[in-house]
Give the backbone structure.
Amino acid sequence: MSEWKEYKIGELVTFQRGHDLPRSEMYHGTYPVAGSNSIIGYHNKFTTKGPGVTIGRSGNIGNPQLHKEDFWAHNTTLCKLPQK
């Protein structure tokens, strides 16, 4: 019989803060810009190779988002760092 063990999320994965991207600098492209609650636009560059997970850092912090493709992790999110 197995027992459940409790962990804090930081004991299992490492997250980093997303990157600033003012609306005035968001150029139309194919890469989703992941905000704290959902996709907030599309850009012509990405900061994070998919797949990746984001959680809100400001605003809505309760709903993790899975991004299957490359994306821009906005500064309102925390994103999981790629494994080395």
Summary: The chain has a mean pLDDT of 88.
